[in-house]
């Protein structure tokens, strides 16, 4: 019976609460009408950088028509910021080659997938992706898959159209002014950021031509020679040293101290980028000398006076 005494109190509370919130909303609406929103750009902070850090180069593995379909239709769930066609492609109907911007640079394109560079993951979040129409492709020989991980895939790599490369250079150059975080070692291939599953843009991609046009990283021959001398006359770095060096440069690699499958994939990607005449992924004195020359040029802090690499922390 006592419970009935509380009913009026409960009803009052409900009523009062409704009244209360109703009048608050009214007040807020009223004040929004009174106040005009004006955004001023009188002051700007100097403490700012661009969200874009990396440029990732890809090949599409197919012709213009298919590339465009795959990179623009929702079904495929892949995209890039730019798509550049090549000459002599029968499916490309325009008279001239154009650069197609299919995703705004401020938006996130889906080109990198699971990826890592210089300790950063989720490269789609912080990069511009550029797809080049080129028919190169790699595939596994199904019946040979487990025999030898170095030999069990087949690649057909095709030269890039020089006009397409000129357009690429013209695409990237102004980008470097727009995004001050894109440093030379931040311009990379898909295989650099996902070495165990990607082969693009492949060993035919002209990284040195880009470098000659102020884009990306390249080594100085005399520094390679210096390390070549040192490594052949004094001591070749250990596998662990080389893993540390690859990791310091940007590759994701576990420091196992043995020349294992993941090391082979990373070294193959490194070769695609910097030593494209030898793409088996075997470590040799040329690999180590090139890697050390790049580190001396772009990350001098990681090499000590005895050419020892300070390994970056996990
Ligand atoms: Zn790719």
The number of helices is 9
| Rg, alpha carbons | 28 Å
Number of domains: 3
Biggest sheet layout: 5 strands, mixed
CATH C-level of the largest domain: Alpha Beta
Inertia-based shape: globular
Name the ligand types. zinc ion
Q: Could you state the order of secondary-structure elements as H and E?
A: HEHEEEEEEEHEHHHHHH
User: What share of the residues does DSSP label as strand, in percent?
Assistant: 5-15%
Span between termini:
69 Å
Helix content: 25-40%
Stretches where pLDDT is under 50 for at least 5 consecutive residues are: none
CATH superfamily of the largest domain: Peptidoglycan recognition protein-like
Instruction: Look at the structure and give the mean pLDDT.
Output: 89
Summarize the structure in words.
This protein is of the alpha/beta class. The protein folds into three domains: 1-38; 54-212, Peptidoglycan recognition protein-like (Lysozyme-like, 3-Layer(aba) Sandwich); 221-302, Orthogonal Bundle (Muramoyl-pentapeptide Carboxypeptidase, domain 1). The protein is 38% helix and 10% strand. The chain has nine helices and nine strands. It has helices at 3-34, 64-72, 162-178, 190-193, 207-212, 221-233, 239-249, 261-274, 285-298; strands spanning 54-59, 82-84, 100-101, 116-117, 120-121, 127-132, 137-140, 153-156, 187-189. A five-stranded mixed β-sheet has the order 3-2-6-1-9. A two-stranded antiparallel ribbon has the order 4-5. A two-stranded antiparallel sheet has the order 7-8. Strand 4 and strand 5 form a beta hairpin. The longest helix is centred in the first third of the chain and has 32 residues, at 3-34. The chain is globular and about 80 Å long. The termini are far apart. The chain binds zinc ion. Zinc ion (ZN) binds next to loops.
